[in-house]
From TrEMBL:
Pfam families: FDX-ACB, tRNA-synt_2d. One of its GO terms (biological process) is phenylalanyl-tRNA aminoacylation. Belongs to the class-II aminoacyl-tRNA synthetase family. The lineage of its organism: Eukaryota, Fungi, Fungi incertae sedis, Zoopagomycota, Zoopagomycotina. This is Phenylalanine--tRNA ligase, mitochondrial. Residues 1-19 form the signal peptide. Residues 59-307 form the Aminoacyl-transfer RNA synthetases class-II family profile domain.
Amino acid sequence: MSLRLSLVRAAAGIRLTAGLLGASYPRDDHTNITGAVLAKVGSDLHQQPNHPICIMATLMRDHFGPLYTYHDALSPVVSPAANFDSLGFEKDHPGRSLSDSYYINKDTMMRTHTSAHQVELLQKGHRNFLVVADVYRRDEIDSTHYPVFHQVEGVRVFDRGNVEAVDSSNLASGPPNASADNPRQACYTTVDSEAVEWHLKASLEGMVRSIFAAAQQAQGIATTQESELKMRWVDGYFPFTSPSYELEVWYEGKWMEVLGCGVIQQHILEQANLHNSVGWAFGIGLERLAMAFFRIPDIRLFWSQDPRFLGQFSAGKVTHFEPFSRYPSCTKDVSFWLPEAKDGEEGFHPNDLFELVRDVAGDLVEDVKLTDSFVHPKTKRESHCYRITYRSMDRNVTNEEINVLQDQVRQLAPERLDVQLR
Ligand code: PHE
């Protein structure tokens, strides 16, 4: 791990391998991608027929059928223009920051969502399409967060005045609702706005019913209960849709947020010269649903090469994961003083520590939690203590082996994060 990282860091440019066609990119002051994350590029879990991630994506693909072109091999390396600007993200949107996103350099980044391909595919002439892809975000470390995960994006475009009518009698929701806070776009007639909102709701409720039916089959629940799945629509906000919604499903005693969606902002269609069109888009994360459907307790398992994991799943079937024995964990604390805030700099962000730990320990890190923080009454400096839980998914780790990793964390933290160990 550290060897690969030092090779990447030592080079004047970043060389991306395998799936990224061996392209080379110059480093600059935006570069924050790490070796541990680069190593995941090209894994393409969503293309392996017997992998739970691909099984989930295929359920959605089969539901939508051949009317929607299917794109599962678009490069994860995109421009901030594609990932943010083309979609109308504000200049100061937090998603753009170095603490939230992985940059290769200031003009090149890892896509943070499949929406990065909306404009590109519309410009290529696609009207109805699905994108399945790996997406990258800097985030916390625990059993449900991983720097790489997968999304499916869906887009459907109609000519104005010609939105396909849907049978709304079966829908969980009442009539489409928009409000001052979640407005319709003034450029559309009320008839088009309502029709596209109905079509969106019917299409996405239909998709969610059919994928949850597959999960219920795995639990041995008769699919006749499919229509009883409880769903609700809540207002959402995305810079690239209006009105925007989230769809939630009542699942195992809780409301579970399943997808984000909305009516495509006209400025996006305009970029593809679609001046007389109206459409909807949605995005859905695959890991959380797959963890629920397949009963997978830790998100790292999706990346396991262990045949005891991979051998349990087969294409087209949702089956419950049979855990193999859980190996013991090893816990270590690290405490430090944060750097003093400097004007115009982003300063310390917990994601910086999470990244460093991932880079040193790879998939041996299970969880990192802030356990204590305080401000020194005299110096006003802030101290953080983090508890790092190490555990392997497939073997026993020794205390000596973890001490080596923890020493590396302690050595690199002052160098890279400008913190002072306590
Ligand atoms: N890209 C959004 C996300 O990652 C989801 C989304 C897609 C919302 C399409 C609306 C339309 O959260």
